[in-house]
Structures are given as structure tokens and as C-alpha cells.
């Protein structure tokens, strides 16, 4: 095992942070790079916006913002011209919903494993345009990804206009077969919108290979960037008709595609500018090996937690990345358990519900130890009298 990297992060020494899937911790050196960009802005705001960043008020993108875009695009194998920086995936998915025009009785097809606010966004969209949001029920435990693709595709009808799907589901932590879904959808002329909030930095991501019309992911979870850092990649076939969420001077200046969608008036771009520092940190600390080691350990603990709770696992390990969800005992009071873990043990863990099932979502990163997972399991057993 590689050495633990707790000292590289700013986490309080007495907390056990086992919820990287909600908000990732940012390494100190990446955070310092972020703050350095903020200091540069404050020393001369006009110089920062009009000369150093370049492109923000000109025709061509250049400078450190474009450098960050190119490096991120290389990391996820995407076309940098289609990469837009957004504060988070929620904003990106709202921008997509705002731009796509639906007709009466058009269907937006998704699953019942999607994140609540995203479902709410598209429910409102469908209500406004007399379209239909259709959620496919995917029962647990899941079998094979091929079975899921076939089952999901049987729900497609001639009215299906958009497919909305998570790459890694939030509550159940399943890595869904989005590449196969996008491939079928492109042949059928159906728009694909992939919510990859948990993907970048957690799994190997290849945007060109997935070939979604819209793909968005949060860098501030597993890529280790400061909070408020995400991207939206728009396929070349969608760029001409994709509308900006915010109308700004870009409508007059007509800069690059990316900048047209990023110019929201005055914005602090420091978090995006620190993306190269995060990528450098990951490379320096052999993050691929660390991810692999973390996955192996997490998967073992996932099985141990399920056995301790007397619950079956919701999938085999092929569905999992670096987060894994376990069904808690059915009588669990979620709020009480959450408070107990924090107040009695200083443990941060994701406790939620899917359908009517109580769930704990486990995550493990380079600042975590096996002792912390043991503590979490023992604390839950004590609370539940198991």
C-alpha cells in the first residue's frame, strides 16, 4: 500500500471524513494555488480580466483559463472547444434543460436512481412544455449491465426525445453503462444527457468514447479541486443550437464557444484556474494506484458491512468504483444515526434513502485508513444493537 496522505489535506485532525462523494477534500497545495489566483485578481482586477485571462473580452481564447481547459480536456479525452466551466453539475444540467426545446408529449426518459434536484429540474421542464418525464424503475439487486441496457431500452418509444442518466448514481453508487446507452441513442436520434457528477477523478473517463450529446461532471469531488469547479462538455453536433444560460457581453463580442457560455459578468475564475495544480498533485502522488488500492479495500468493507447488517449486497463488484452503498437495517432512524456518528464519533458519512430503503454510502480516499472504516462499522453496530 502507498503511504497515507492525510498530512497533505486540511481536514481537522479529529474528524473521520468518509464522505468524499458529497464534497471532496482539497489538498493544501491545490488550495494555495487557488488562493494565489485570487490574490492576482485583487492586485489588479482590470489587468486580471482583460489581459491575463485573455479571451474573456476578445475573439480568441488564450491564457491560463484556456490552459486549464485544455489540460482538463486531455485528462478526460474530450474536445476542448466543447468544454464549458460551470460551478457545479446542477447548473450545467439546468443550462441543458433551458436550451433543449420539447414538444407536447415528448418523453424525457430517465431512471429512479437519479439525483433528486436533477429530477426536479427536468420535471419542471416537462411541465412547462407539456412533455413527459418517464422514470424507469431499476430494482435492486441489479444483475448485469447488459441486462440493464436491454431493459432500459425497452422503455424507449417513438416519443422519446431525451435520455437523462447518471454515470454513477448518487444514492446507490452504481456505475451505469452510459456508453452503450449513448451509442444506441445516437443511432436512434435521441439526445443524451449524462450526469457524471461523481465520475471525473474517480473512474477513467473518456468523453469521446462515450459520445454523449451532453456530459457534465464535478471536479470538486474526486478530482481534488476547490469547491465550485465543474465542467460541461457539449458534443459538436449540439453546439450551434445550445443556448447560454446567462446572456452577457458574449452575445456582442462573440468569443469562442466555451467563453460565450462562461461569461456571466464578474466571476471569480480561480477555482477553474487551479485545475492544472490538482492534476499535477494527482500525478505526483500516483493517484491511479491510490484509486485502485482504495477500491479494493472499499469493496471488501462493503461486503463486511452488508454481512454485519444482515442485508444482501445490491450489486456485484463490477458495478462499483470508489464509492459503494450498503442497505442499512430496515428499522434504522437515519437522522438519529447521522447525528450519533458525528456527535459521538466525529464521523462524516453519507446516510440517505432510496425508495424506502435506508442506505449508507461508503467512500475511501488517500487520506482515509482502515481504522476509520472499522470505527464506522463498530459505531453503527453499537447504535443498532447488532
What do you see in this structure?
It is globular, with a radius of gyration of 21 Å. The protein is an alpha/beta fold and 386 residues long. The protein has a seven-stranded mixed sheet with strand order 2-8-7-6-5-3-4, with helices on both faces. The chain has a three-stranded antiparallel sheet with strand order 9-12-11. It has 16 helices and twelve strands. Helix 4 (89-99) packs parallel to helix 5 and helix 15 (334-345) packs across helix 16. The longest helix has 23 residues, at 287-309. Mean pLDDT is 93; it is low at 55-59. It folds into two domains: 6-27 and 286-384, Aspartate Aminotransferase, domain 1, CATH 3.90.1150.10; 31-280, 3-Layer(aba) Sandwich (Aspartate Aminotransferase, domain 2), CATH 3.40.640. 42% of the residues lie in helices and 15% in strands.
Helix and strand arrangement:
Elements: E1 16-17, H1 28-43, H2 45-52, H3 64-75, E2 83-86, H4 89-99, E3 107-111, H5 116-128, E4 132-136, H6 145-153, E5 160-166, H7 178-188, E6 191-195, H8 207-210, E7 214-218, H9 219-222, E8 230-234, H10 250-253, H11 257-262, H12 270-273, H13 275-284, H14 287-309, E9 323-327, H15 334-345, E10 347-348, E11 350-354, E12 357-363, H16 370-384
Parallel strand pairs: 1-10, 3-4, 3-5, 5-6, 6-7
Antiparallel strand pairs: 2-8, 7-8, 9-12, 11-12
Second-tier CATH architecture of the largest domain: 3-Layer(aba) Sandwich
| SSE ordering | EHHHEHEHEHEHEHEHEHHHHHEHEEEH
Kindly provide the name of the CATH class of the largest domain.
Alpha Beta
**Gyration radius, rounded:** 21 Å
The total strand number stands at 12
Count of domains: 2
Q: What is the averaged pLDDT score?
A: 93
Q: Return the structural class.
A: alpha/beta
Strand order of the largest sheet: 2-8-7-6-5-3-4
Helicity level: 40-55%
User: Unreliable segments (pLDDT under 50, ≥5 consecutive)?
Assistant: 55-59
Distance between the termini: 31 Å
Percent of residues in beta strands? 5-15%
Named CATH topology of the largest domain: Aspartate Aminotransferase, domain 2
Major beta-sheet overview: 7 strands, mixed
Amino acid at each position: 500500500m502507498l503511504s497515507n496522505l492525510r498530512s497533505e489535506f486540511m481536514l481537522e485532525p479529529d474528524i473521520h471524513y468518509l464522505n468524499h462523494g458529497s464534497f471532496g477534500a482539497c489538498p493544501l497545495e491545490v488550495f494555495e494555488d487557488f488562493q494565489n489566483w485570487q490574490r492576482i485578481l485583487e492586485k489588479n482586477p482590470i489587468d486580471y480580466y482583460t489581459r491575463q485571462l485573455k479571451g474573456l473580452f476578445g475573439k480568441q481564447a488564450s491564457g491560463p483559463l484556456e490552459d486549464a481547459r485544455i489540460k482538463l480536456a486531455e485528462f478526460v479525452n474530450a474536445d476542448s472547444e466543447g468544454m464549458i466551466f460551470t460551478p457545479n453539475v446542477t447548473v450545467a444540467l439546468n443550462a441543458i434543460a433551458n436550451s433543449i426545446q420539447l414538444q407536447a408529449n415528448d418523453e424525457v426518459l430517465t431512471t429512479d436512481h437519479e439525483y433528486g434536484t436533477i429530477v426536479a429540474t427536468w420535471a419542471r421542464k416537462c411541465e412547462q412544455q407539456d412533455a413527459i418525464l418517464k422514470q424507469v424503475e431499476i430494482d435492486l439487486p441489479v444483475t448485469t449491465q447488459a441486462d440493464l441496457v436491454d431493459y432500459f431500452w425497452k422503455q424507449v418509444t417513438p416519443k422519446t426525445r431525451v435520455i437523462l442518466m447518471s454515470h454513477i448514481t448518487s444514492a446507490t453508487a452504481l456505475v451505469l453503462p452510459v456508453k452503450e446507452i449513448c451509442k444506441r441513442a445516437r443511432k436512434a436520434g435521441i439526445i443524451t444527457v449524462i450526469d457524471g457528477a461523481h465520475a471525473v477523478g474517480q473512474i477513467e473517463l473518456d468523453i469521446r468514447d462515450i459520445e454523449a450529446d451532453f456530459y457534465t461532471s464535478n471536479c470538486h469531488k474526486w478530482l481534488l479541486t476547490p469547491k465550485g469547479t465543474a465542467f460541461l462538455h457539449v458534443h459538436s453536433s449540439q453546439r450551434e443550437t445550445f443556448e447560454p444560460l446567462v446572456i452577457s457581453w458574449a452575445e456582442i463580442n462573440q468569443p469562442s464557444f466555451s467563453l460565450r457560455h462562461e461569461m456571466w459578468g464578474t466571476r471569480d475564475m480561480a477555482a477553474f484556474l487551479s485545475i492544472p495544480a490538482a492534476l499535477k498533485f494527482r500525478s505526483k502522488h500516483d493517484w491511479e494506484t491510490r484509486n485502485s488500492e482504495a477500491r479494493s479495500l472499499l469493496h471488501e468493507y462493503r461486503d463486511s458491512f452488508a454481512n454485519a447488517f444482515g442485508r444482501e449486497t445490491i450489486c456485484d463488484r463490477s458495478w462499483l468504483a470508489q464509492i459503494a452503498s450498503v442497505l442499512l437495517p430496515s428499522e434504522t432512524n437515519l437522522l438519529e444515526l447521522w447525528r450519533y456518528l458525528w456527535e459521538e464519533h466525529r464521523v462524516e458519512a453519507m446516510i440517505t434513502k432510496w425508495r424506502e430503503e435506508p442506505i449508507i454510502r461508503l467512500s475511501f480516499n488517500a487520506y482515509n485508513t482502515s481504522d476509520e472504516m472499522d470505527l464506522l462499522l463498530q459505531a453503527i453496530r453499537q447504535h443498532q444493537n447488532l
